[in-house]
Design a protein that fits this description.
The protein is mainly β. The protein has 3 helices and 12 strands.
Length: 209
């Protein structure tokens, strides 16, 4: 599964001679593509189809290439990690961990890891559109292929070239909406932060390889 939707939107110019917007997109691309590590606070709102929205929050750490760690403060103790090959999700309520190959994961958090990945902009998206939103810009797009579990992606970019919001809509009409704050560029992040260790007494479920 290809997991580059988020920043790929930033560089495909669908706005003709709007050199101001082209410049903004290039700045955002340069910012995230050149950073080696990133730390940001997040609030995550997930709305399953026909069900009630759930809100969670925590801190997201990213390290190039493709390593990701989400430590949740709400609910306390929830954790997801990408070590570049596998995606791990631990939920303290049922004391269970799930492991799946990153390349076949359908978890809609996975694109976050590619804020610091190798990007191929023109290959990923179609029907790009943009509109101003205060001093920021909201961009929407659809994936080029049907291999991804998303029907559309939106994100909000600030005038300072920061991503403030990511919204992913699944083919099942589920919605995952992230808002970001307190971004720190290139913090020192130990590689061990991106290794998953099964908590004592927890059970592990592995998906098919």
């Amino acid at each position: 599964m290809r997991l580059t939707p988020l920043i790929g939107l930033l560089v495909v110019s669908a706005f003709g001679a709007d050199t101001g917007l082209d410049s903004l997109l290039a700045k955002v691309e340069g910012h995230y593509n050149h950073a080696k590590t990133l730390q940001v606070s997040f609030t995550e709102q997930y709305t399953p189809p026909g069900s009630i929205r759930r809100t969670e929050s925590g801190t997201l750490l990213l390290r190039k290439p493709g390593r990701m760690r989400g430590d949740y403060s709400q609910p306390q103790g929830k954790l997801f990690i990408s070590d570049g090959k596998f995606l791990w999700l631990y939920t303290p309520d049922d004391h269970k961990a799930e492991k799946m190959p990153l390349k076949v994961s359908e978890d809609m958090r996975a694109p976050l890891a590619f804020l610091l990945g190798k990007l191929h902009f023109t290959k990923e998206f179609r029907n790009l559109q943009a509109r101003p939103e205060g001093t920021a810009t909201r961009i929407t797009a659809e994936p080029q292929t049907q291999d991804l579990p998303y029907s559309s992606v939106e994100f909000v970019v600030s005038a300072e070239s920061r991503i403030q919001e990511l919204k992913v809509t699944g083919f099942d009409r589920s919605i995952l909406d992230f808002t970001f704050a307190d971004e720190k560029d290139d913090p020192a992040l130990d590689a061990k932060l991106f290794e998953f260790h099964l908590p004592p007494g927890a059970t592990l479920e592995e998906s098919a390889q």
